[in-house]
Amino acid sequence: MPATALHKFITLMGLLSILHTAYSAAQHRSYLRITEQEFITLPIDILIQGIISLFMVMYGVMYIAGDFKEIRAVVDLENKSWETLRNLPSFQIFSHRGRSLSS
Questions:
Q1: Are 54 and 18 in contact (CB under 8 A)?
Q2: Binned average pLDDT, 10 residues per bin, the chain of 103 residues
Q3: Rounded to 5, what percent of the chain is helix, strand, coil?
Q4: Which of 66, 86, 92 is nearest to 7 (CA)?
């Protein structure tokens, strides 16, 4: 499936929400230092926002990145013939001195 503007928007909102979650966590830690309280855990709303933001980013990136390819190289090579595999265009040289020698 191609990436649409919706997927890009979801990814952007997820990234902004993760940044907001990090800022909220830092602000909470600062509040605890000022009030001289011990840090035990983050509030549940910050945790939920962080988890939802993470899933939003993962969903958006999955569609933006495109189709997944098989890890095994054999899958890609099964459909190619030996002539196709042996053809190495990087070694084909067309501008060489043999052209000037043949007259």
A1: yes
A2: 84 97 96 92 95 96 80 72 67 70 68
A3: 65, 0, 35
A4: 66
Long-range contacts, 92-97 (Cβ 8 Å, 24+): none
Please give the model's pTM, rounded to 2 decimal places: 0.64
Per the CB < 8 A criterion, the answer to whether 59 and 1 are in contact is: no
Q: Is residue 29 part of a domain?
A: yes
56 in Cβ contact with 17 (< 8 Å): yes
Q: What is the pLDDT of residues 6-31, one digit of tens each?
A: 999 999 999 999 999 999 999 999 99
Secondary structure (DSSP) of 62-82: HHHH-----SSHHHHHTTS-H
- Residues ≥6 apart with Cβ < 8 Å to 44: none
CA distance 94 to 3: 40
- How many domains does the chain divide into? 1
Look up residue 75 and give its two tokens: 């899958």
Residue 97 placed within a domain: no
Q: What range does the domain containing 21 cover?
A: 3-85
